[in-house]
C-alpha cells in the first residue's frame, strides 16, 4: 500500500500536469506554477515548484501561498482543490490522477451491509448516508457561484467526494465529486436521491453527458427544504428553489427535480396555499397548469411565481437579490410577505 510520501513523490514527478489539471486558472512562469490559491482562484499569490528533488527542501510539488502562509505538497493541493477531508478520499483521487490501480479491497466481514440493487431506494439511502455536510466543500462553492449564499435549512443536500458516474452500462465508471440531495416522501422517509456531478476546477457541473441524475422512487416525492404545513412552495430544480429561499427563507419548499414530477407532487394534508415556481418554458407552463388543476380540485389555493428570465436562479444571478425580492414581493400574498419574506440585504 502506498504511503502519503510515496503518493506525493509520484505526483511531484508530474507536478506541471497536476497543476494544469487541478489549478487550471493558473499558468507556468519559469520553474513555478502561479495561481491565486489552492481552490483554483485566478491570481498570482500561490506558487508551486515544478522542478527539484523528490523530497526535502525545494522538492518538486511543494507550494506556498504568499497571501495566507499556507503551504504543503501536491496531496495537500488536491485536498484543497477538491474539497476533500478524509485521507482515503485524497489518496483515491491521487491514484485516479496517476492512473494507478485501486488498493486491494478488504474482505467483506459479517458486519458489513449486504449489496443492494443499483438505483433502488435503499441504494439512495446508503449514498446519502455516506455523504457529508456541504459547509466548506465544492458543493457550497458551486451554490455560491450561482448566487445562493443563504444555506440555512439545506440539510437535505450533502457532498460526496467520490461519486461514481457511468455514461451507460457498457462504459467504465468515472469518479467525480457530487452534490447529493435526498428525495423524501411526506413522512420524511428517503425514497431516492439526486446527484449533480461537479468539476472541482471550474466549480461548475462536471463536463460529462448527463451531470444530473436521479435514482430511487421519485413520483410524488421531492427534495424538501423545511416541513410543509399550511403554506408551501414547489419548483423543478434544486437551484431554482434555493434561489427563492434566498428571499423566502422561512417558507417550506420542495424541488421536484423535473417538470413531470412537479406536476405529480403529493400534497401535505394541512396544505391550504401552494406557490408554484414555474420555469419560463413550454414544459414549465404545462407542469404549472397541471399542478394548479390538481391542487384546486382538492381545495388548495394556488399562486404562480414567475421569473423574469428562464428560472429564478437566472434571475438571482443576472438581476440580483434585490431585484428578485422586489419582483417576488408583488407576486406573494400580502399576509405571506410579512410571515415569510426576508428583508435582509
Keywords:
single chain; 345 residues; alpha+beta; five-stranded antiparallel sheet; 15 strands; elongated
Structure, described:
It is a single chain. With about 350 residues, the protein is an alpha+beta fold. About 30% of the residues lie in helices and about 20% in strands. The protein is built from 12 helices and 15 strands. It has a 5-stranded antiparallel β-sheet with strand order 1-2-3-4-5. Helix 3 packs across helix 4 and helix 10 packs across helix 11. The chain is elongated. The model has no long low-confidence stretch (mean pLDDT about 90).
Mean pLDDT: 89
Helix content: 25-40%
Strand order of the largest sheet: 1-2-3-4-5
Distance between the termini: 52 Å
User: What value does the Rg take, in angstroms?
Assistant: 23 Å
Largest sheet: 5 strands, antiparallel
**H/I helix tally:** 12
| Oligomeric state as shown | single chain
Class based on secondary structure composition and strand pairing: alpha+beta
Strand content: 15-25%
Could you give the order of the helices and strands?
A: HHEEEEEHHHHEEEEEEEHEHEHEHHH
General form? elongated
Number of strands: 15
Question: Low-confidence stretches at least 5 residues in length (pLDDT < 50)?
Answer: none
